[in-house]
Design goal:
This protein has a single domain, classed as TolB, C-terminal domain (Neuraminidase, 6 Propeller), CATH 2.120.10.30. It is built from two helices and 27 strands. A five-stranded antiparallel beta sheet has the order 2-1-27-26-25. The protein has a four-stranded antiparallel beta sheet with strand order 3-4-5-6, with helices on one face. A hairpin with a 6-residue loop joins β5 and β6. The chain is globular, with a radius of gyration of 19 Å. The relative contact order is 0.16.
């Protein structure tokens, strides 16, 4: 009943055309911009040289896909362009690049998520692998045994509130796969529309919200995979990414027409927007993925331009 009520509130609020409530965000720093990592004090000189890279990726990131943070506030960025995961520690200035998960060589790292105790769950879209790193950031294990291939090309990853279920999007099969922490498939949910190309997922009060690229809307599913309806955001015809900010109880959705991230509350009211089109260190051309960390920092992934921008809400 709560989901139906939420959907009705969304519809009525969107129809009413509520005015923005002026929630504002400021740019903090950027990983992988053509001007390097800003502010420079974020990393030591030695670490910055390592992070900026050389050869075909002179600014460090090739094609960033997704980002998460762990309990130590380290920033993990998956990068299919460099076939690696970049790990930055803003506190200490440390940087390292992960190219292997145990015996497996990473090929196209994609979705990534961290649980409450610091475990990192990493997907590889090319191999179909799922890997776990421990709270120290070291490789722990592969979720799948040798020869097991329950996923074809996993993309986005999300965790249940208790961390016991790992939800993985598998776009080629148009499904959401629910795994337990041992890598066993608990269930597979077929999305309501064919060839919908699921691209982003959030878990909100044990319900699944899945953005599809081809139909440009969010599908809502219950824990058993039953469809609970769908919704869109007013003024965003073709959202390219979204995330739910659990701390502030609001949605952030990417609007490619304005190159901004728009903010909506649970009732569908437009609270504001931030971002600017361009090549500057604080600008983006296309938003491909979004993440909100426990402190409320918003990470904006601009894959094609090889950077991840970080924003924080303005405080009076």
């Amino acid at each position: 009943m709560r989901t139906v009520a939420l959907l009705l509130l969304l519809v009525s609020a969107l129809a009413a055309g509520d005015d923005p409530l002026d929630v504002q965000f400021d740019h903090r720093y950027t990983f992988g911009s053509k001007f390097g990592i800003h502010p420079p004090k974020l990393l030591s000189t030695r670490a910055a040289v390592a992070a900026l890279g050389r050869s075909e990726h002179p600014y460090g990131l090739g094609f960033p896909v997704a980002v998460t943070t762990d309990v130590r506030r380290r920033v993990w960025i998956t990068d299919s362009g460099t076939a690696s995961v970049h790990v930055f520690d803003p506190k200490t200035g440390a940087y390292r690049e992960i190219k292997r998960a145990g015996d497996a060589l990473l090929q196209q790292p994609s979705g990534i998520a961290a649980d409450a105790v610091g475990r990192i769950y990493l997907a590889d879209a090319s191999t179909g692998g799922m890997y776990v790193f421990d709270e120290n950031g070291e490789f722990d294990r592969s979720l799948f045994k040798r020869g097991e291939h329950p996923l074809e090309s996993p993309s986005a990853v999300a965790l249940s509130a208790d961390g016991k279920t790992i939800y993985v999007l598998d776009p080629p099969r148009n499904v959401v796969v629910a795994l337990n922490r041992e890598g066993e498939v608990n269930s597979t949910f077929q999305l309501p529309e064919e060839r919908s190309e699921p691209s982003a997922i959030s878990i909100i009060e044990n319900q699944l919200y899945v953005l599809t690229n081809s139909h440009h809307k969010v599908h809502m599913l219950n824990p058993a995979g039953r469809s609970l309806g769908e919704f869109r955001w007013d003024g965003i015809a073709i959202p390219t990414a979204f995330v739910f900010d659990h701390g502030q109880r609001r949605f952030l959705a990417a609007n490619p027409r304005s190159s901004t991230v728009q903010i909506f509350n649970e009732e569908g009211q437009n609270l504001g927007a931030f971002g600017q089109y361009g090549d500057g260190v604080d600008q983006m051309r296309h938003v491909d993925s979004l993440y909100v960390d426990p402190r409320g920092l918003v990470y904006v992934v601009d894959s094609h331009n090889g950077k991840v921008l970080v924003f924080a809400e303005s405080r009076p």
